[in-house]
């Protein structure tokens, strides 16, 4: 089951399949497609897993083992790669909140997000090679963009798992929180990113011309939200300071 919740412009998409450690089956792919369509208009999107054991443990082998032809395997890979592409191209910032281990296809889902936030006790592994296959959902290319080609080949070629601290060191994860404060941590980051200008910042980071970047800035400059915020700042800086010692 995939659950989509909204709060103050933030959409939270949770993969909730405890019996399969949040592994992805064909039905899950369809539910993810529907959830991403329904999340349109959100100012930020979080994708996470239910519980604290797994973010996504990969593809659901018990169900996907029914695919025995090259055509069926290619169709499945193409469909889930499309889901990851939709995550990567979502107009607003996308945060992968790694509540648990991200393994195989789960690591591919994680790197499709713009930002990865992890609990300090999780592990990440592109371990498809242990099944004599390879990442097929766009994860190999996205991993290389994050950590470089040589590290990507080493990680995906050996299937080595890295812990959250090492993942942060090599640029695979952006922020690590202690398990006790993980939920509070990712929600705080998501709330800060669920602001109108951030989608424009993402668009510019992903590559536009200088003229387009300036046009984005100009649109924001003349918007009411900018002048309301500017007015608050100017009022703060011009307000009289209290007398020494707090006397009135």
TrEMBL record:
Task: Output the InterPro entries linked to this UniProt entry.
Answer: ClpP/crotonase-like_dom_sf, Enoyl-CoA_hyd/isom_CS, Enoyl-CoA_hydra/iso
Task: Look up keyword Methyltransferase and say if it applies.
Answer: no
Listed A to Z, the keywords are:
Fatty acid metabolism, Lipid metabolism
The protein's superkingdom reads Bacteria
Q: Which residues form the signal peptide?
A: none
SUPFAM superfamilies named among the record's database cross-references: ClpP/crotonase
Gene3D superfamilies from the xrefs? Answer: 2-enoyl-CoA Hydratase, Chain A, domain 1
Query: What GO biological process terms does the UniProt entry carry, in alphabetical order?
Result: fatty acid beta-oxidation
Coiled-coil positions: none
Q: Does the keyword Lipid metabolism apply?
A: yes
Q: Name one Pfam family in it.
A: ECH_1
Q: Which reaction does it catalyse?
A: a (3S)-3-hydroxyacyl-CoA = a (2E)-enoyl-CoA + H2O; a 4-saturated-(3S)-3-hydroxyacyl-CoA = a (3E)-enoyl-CoA + H2O
Q: What GO molecular function annotation could you give as one example from this UniProt entry?
A: enoyl-CoA hydratase activity
- Protein family per UniProt: Belongs to the enoyl-CoA hydratase/isomerase family.
Physiological role: Could possibly oxidize fatty acids using specific components.
PANTHER family in alphabetical order: ENOYL-COA HYDRATASE, MITOCHONDRIAL (PTHR11941:SF54), ENOYL-COA HYDRATASE-RELATED (PTHR11941)
Q: What is this protein called?
A: Enoyl-CoA hydratase
